[in-house]
Amino acid sequence: MTEPENLPSLEEVPSLEDEIFSVASRVENARDSSPRIRLPWDKAPQAPDGRFILVVGAGFGTFVLVDVIMMWAPLMMSRRPSLLPQMMTLLLLAFGLGSLLIWKVGGSWRPFGIGMMLAWIFLTLVSVGFLTGLTL
User: Fold this and answer.
1) Of these four, 34, 62, 91, 101, which has the most CB atoms within 10 Å of its CB?
2) Model confidence over 114-133: pLDDT tens digits?
3) Predicted structure pTM score
């Protein structure tokens, strides 16, 4: 059958460790770590540009102007009526129209809606709800 002279010597026989690592060295090492399909949320975050900040500021300013006009009369009266209608209108304007601009209209109107929402939050926090009708 097999002749002893045809068998390799023990020094020539590779060990199990040699076989495992020889296969691993032949596997392609140059894989990139990113997925092959680019997903929208895999983009690197970017700093907002000047136009984005300008449009957010325009939305912020528009909401502040509407808020001042709506809340001027009720807040200047000595005996204040209920501020519930103004509060609901301002909430609907900031978060209703703002979210409509963000999710449905999109495009360059998205930062305008964000600015309106930020203005409502800012005015509520600064005035403890007094300028947005949240006072009890």
Assistant:
1) 101
2) 999 999 999 999 988 888 88
3) 0.64
